[in-house]
Amino acid sequence: MAAETLVPNSADEAAQLFGDGDGVTVFGGGTILMPAIASGRLKPARVLLLHRSGLDGLSIDGGIVRIGAMVSVGELAEGPDDVLARFAREVGDLEVRASATVGGNVCAPPGQEAQRGDLGAPLIALGARVRSIGGGGERTEPVEDFLVGDRGARLVLEIEYDRPSGAWSAQTMRRRHARSYAIANVAICSNADGIRVGVSGIGPTAVRCRAVEQSRNADDVLKDVDPVDDAVASAEYRRKMLTVLVRRALDEVESS
Fold first, then answer.
1. In b/e form, how buried is each residue of 126-161, taking b as 16+ CB within 10 angstroms?
2. Is the pLDDT of residue 1 over 60?
C-alpha cells in the first residue's frame, strides 16, 4: 500500500498536518530516509514533504541568526567561515550536503554503523535554540535539551542563536571513505560568560560538556560523554582521541 503524501505550502500548514507527529514521517532532504525506504527497513504510512513549506529561510536579524529547518547543509558550508560552517563542510560529500537539511541533521536517529548529527557540536557551542512543534504545542528550547528529548515527536521549524563575537575552535577527526564519517567532533565557543563545549560523532546524540566548561581540563570530557563502538572506530580509540581534540580546541580558544 502506497504511503499517503502530505505537501504543505507554508510553515503553518506543515505544523497543522504534522499534528502530534503520530504516524507521520517527516521528509526533508531524504539522505537518511531514502536508503531506509529503498531497503525496506522503513515503510511509512504518511509522509510529510517539506520542500514547499517555506522553512528554508536563513537570516540575521538584530544579532540573532535564524536557520530554517529546510536550509541545506551545503548552504551553511558555503557561508561565512565560522564554527558551524566549518563542521558543515565535513558532512558527507557535495551530493549529500546539497540535499541534507539542518533540521534533518539535528533530528537524525542513531546510525547503525556510523554516528550522525555532526552539527550538534557547533550548535551546542553556539548556544543554539530549537523552535519546534508537536504534542503540547510550539516551544523553543536549548539544542542540548532538544537532543535528549523525543525528537521523532517534534517538527523542527527553526534553529536560532546569538551571533558569536568571541573566539571559537572546530576540531574533528574523521574516517575518509566515499563519504566522511566522524570519529569525534569538538566545538568550543567563548563569550562574556565563559566557554561552551559541544561534542558529537561519539555516540547517538551530541552532548554539552559542562565539566570541561567549568574546569578547562580536557580530561574532564569523559565525565560528560560515553563513546560507543561502531564500524568507524572503537570506543577506546574515541576516548583517547577525544581528549586530544578537546585539548587542541581549548588551546586554540585560549590563545585567540
1. bbbbbbbbbeeeeeeeebbebbeeebeebbbbbbbb
2. no
